[in-house]
């Protein structure tokens, strides 16, 4: 049975004080569980605590990228723009922490290095880098999907004499690039958001692009007070709408296929979506991620826009992606392509000739040294598994998670792992997570996990473990649905392709948020089917 024991002996230990950890703590407290959060940073916010690069925003609309568990909270909080900036999202996370008095149970500046399951006592012991220990019946890893930054090991990387930055671990005091020659390596979402702003400041900006990306204009603007009033008058309706959508975002997808549309209909629909802006561009037709020919019509439309915006035809061609649109995650930008019309911006295509070395003076490609004063690594993350595997997690019989996942992550519902009793992951690999609006997904996970703890307490149990058979079936189902879409067909971080040596497995669950929630609910209703209890 769950017991309230002294200081470091808890019912639940949570790792991470991002949106998942904060809500987990709040909900557990409300249920009478003793819980503590261990957080590596000095503040709350997770992703939004670390990613402070210029231009960082969420590309899900602010009125949907927020908690819905507390109506007073969603009524009182005022977002200022259609897409909230990182400082505003961080302020929101801080507001939530204060409003629900969460900080007193969060230990900041505490990085967890090891987590070990004690089979006899049915408990987890977590060790921190500082050598402290915390024990708890349950361990919840709320460590985020994009929280372990990836900096490629270029030859000579440490020889550079100037300043280096990673977008995912940006200095809190900000960086002034005025008068500096700056290199940005990478052209994913973080680069696409930061490049226009760095270009405005720097004396010269050189962008090193391995793969061009598709990006759709954000058309960001102050939020219309009328729209906010209408949403707040019936917030549950907007939330319920989001939950019916495969990506957890309330929007109007077109239910017709591109394959059956005339050239005029294609153009009209793409122009409309381009003018609306944002990620919902991919909802222009219902077969864009299922059929290559359909997808090619959307891809060609965006290439046409790039050629219209970018004045130098050679640069425009370098910026034109040729792969499936939406296979790598679509980006959302403010003035990205137009930035290449600036006289102080150079694009270096490294697709055929990778970065040879970082030198004391800059970046060397194809025998040419590009001298710079600062290098910005916008090179992404060891996504989905990185933060989990950084911790030495040991389950039954000393089984190491790093060994179990050598060929790629395996989980039951992205929530639990066979061989690791009483360990839960929020938005773990095998859950819809990064393919959806993360906030509702996080809330669903937190509620499912905490309900499970409540059920165990009611039934006088303190041990639960996913069965190997249930895990195998879920992993098989994941692979099967991943194979039905074009999303698994390119070298993206979804399949671990950005980190050398990482196993190629499509990590998030692509069957859609509603189908996933239905399966989770069914598992719970059937007495935690697929789990061994006790
Ligand atoms: O990282 P990325 P990110 N040599 O992995 C390149 C979320 N997010 O931080 O494509 C040269 O997308 C790499 O090249 P390639 C969002 O889910 C959301 O930008 O692998 N280049 C790529 O261009 C997003 O998808 C928001 O060929 C190398 C870039 O670095 C996710 O975070 C904002 C290289 C990495 O792009 C990650 O985005 C920001 C090498 N050795 C992020 N290694 C919003 O909500 C890597 N690259 C708006």
TrEMBL record:
Q: Which residues cross the membrane?
A: none
GO molecular function, a single term: monooxygenase activity
Pfam families in alphabetical order:
Pyr_redox_3
UniProt keywords (A-Z) are: FAD, Flavoprotein, Monooxygenase, NADP, Oxidoreductase
- Keyword hit for Electron transport: no
Question: What are the names of the required cofactors?
Answer: FAD
Record's keyword annotation contains Iron: no
- Family label: Belongs to the FAD-binding monooxygenase family.
Q: What is this protein called?
A: Cyclohexanone monooxygenase
Species of origin reads: Thalassobaculum fulvum
